[in-house]
Amino acid sequence: MISTADFRKGLTIALDDEVFSIIDFQHVKPGKGGAFVRTKLRNVRTGNVFDRTFRAGERMERAILERKQMQFLYPQDDEFVFMDMETYDQVTLSARDLGESAKWLKDALEVNILTHEGRLIGVELPDSVDLVVTATGPAFRGDTVSGGTKPATMETGAVVQVPLFIAEGDVIRVDTRSGLYLERVSG
Q1: Domain identity same for 48 and 15
Q2: What pLDDT tens digit does each residue of the chain (187 aa) get?
Q3: CA-CA distance, 90 to 82, in Å (whole number)?
Q4: How many distinct structural domains can be found in the chain?
Q5: Which of 47, 48, 63 is nearest to 13 (CA)?
Q6: Which residues form the domain of 99?
Q7: End-of-domain residue from the set 62, 81, 114
Q8: For the chain, how many helices (H) and strands (E)?
Q9: 138 and 110 in a common domain
Q10: pTM
Q11: Distance from C-alpha of 143 to C-alpha of 1, rounded to nearest angstrom
Q12: Which of 29, 71, 95, 128 could potentially form a cystine with 35 if both were Cys, beta carbons 3.0 to 4.6 Å apart?
């Protein structure tokens, strides 16, 4: 068991039969009333982020996550197949288990499969992935970085806002945590 005094970024806790990672926290001591801790939590399984407030000193269970590096092989219906790179065993995760992470998976991407108490709960993606733009509006002569943005569909089906100069066939780097365009890798 841990208390709110032990909170730090990246710590995982178990609440309501789910596992959450602490993104941010702030200890607050108002002039009137008891102290409390305001947190921003990410559901490890779904990727959803929400705010929650705890009383100062409140205790909860710490969730110990085991990470195993695996390679994404292919999607199959509503499931995704991963291979252990040491034993060549394959595991399958449902789209529900992956949540928002599913839209960044491409062939041969190496990820960490997360387990809690022997149960597969999701994946930990690299901070960024390089994806090919498969569909977007045309690029025009004179378009610059300081201009606007346009939607572009990636090879995985994800839609990302990109600068106007990005064209179909370009490879771009995308932040998997925020879904934002980072840079053009080639083009």
Answers
A1: yes
A2: 888 888 888 888 888 888 888 889 999 888 888 889 999 998 887 778 889 998 888 898 888 888 899 999 998 888 899 998 889 999 888 888 787 888 888 888 999 988 888 888 878 889 899 999 999 887 555 555 566 788 999 998 899 999 888 888 899 999 988 889 999 987 5
A3: 6
A4: 3
A5: 63
A6: 65-124
A7: 62
A8: 1, 16
A9: no
A10: 0.71
A11: 55
A12: 29
Distance CA 19, CA 8 (A): 15
User: Which one-letter amino acid corresponds to residue 1?
Assistant: M
Same domain for 41 and 16: yes
Residues 175, 128: contact at Cβ < 8 Å?
yes
Please state, in angstroms and as integers, the Cα–Cα distance from residue 18 to each residue in 32, 64, 87, 159, following that order: 33, 12, 29, 28
Nearest to 156 by CA among 85, 112, 98, 88: 98
